[in-house]
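To whoever picks this up:

The parser on our side crashed when reading a file containing two proteins. I've narrowed it down to the boundary between the first structure block and the second sequence. Both blocks are reproduced below exactly, byte for byte. First block:
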Amino acid sequence: MRGEARGRPVLAMDLGGTTTRVALVGPGGRLLARTSHPTAAEAEPEAALAAMAVAGDALLASARLMSADLRGVGMAVPGPMDFRRGVVLTSPNLPRWRDVPLRAMLEARWPVPAFAENDANAAALGERSYGAGRDFTDFIYLTISTGIGGGLVLGGRLYR
């Protein structure tokens, strides 16, 4: 099963303060399809996730895939979170996002393993695996967009 799962795509989502991005990503980080739409920052978390689900399902349909074909689903969100529980504690850009059990919501929507991560940490991990951080075991990733954040990689691993 592990080898089979490795060849399956993931659904990756980035909930930004102004723009939401959804992508279908294949093995090795190969981008298969993507879309984006404005973030309804004042919306309830359930409404934002519903909009992302519509976008994600459309990407799956365009690739002639079903949610069961996914290896997993991951979502990056702005603000502090409890990574172990998959709970968004608060978000400076999304006022209604307080103590949101995001991982459980994702797993209820798609029947695959789900991951939720702070957006700057997720970006640092992406750079470590596929970008400018590939050749470094220690670095800091800074993001300046709707908000400001950072991720720290030490010894090749994300520091929490």
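<<boundary where parser fails>>
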Amino acid sequence: KLLRIDADTVQPAEGNIAIWSRVPAPKEQRLDAERYRQVQGRGQGVAAILGQWPGEETDEEIAAFLEDLS
């Protein structure tokens, strides 16, 4: 069942509104997680960043950097 719809605006419908009479079905009924799983080596994924954080920045500097990224 449909649980949520994200929308930027809501406006009254015009013209043929039949397209909105049903919720579209998903392309795949069940997600196969194994299909997307990838083996990670020592220099990949989380292992590539563990132990790499210099740790000298203040919380405020990190917050400002993250704000600049978003």
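After patching the parser it read the second block fine. The CA atoms of residues 63 and 69 lie 10 Å apart. The two ends are 32 Å apart (CA to CA).
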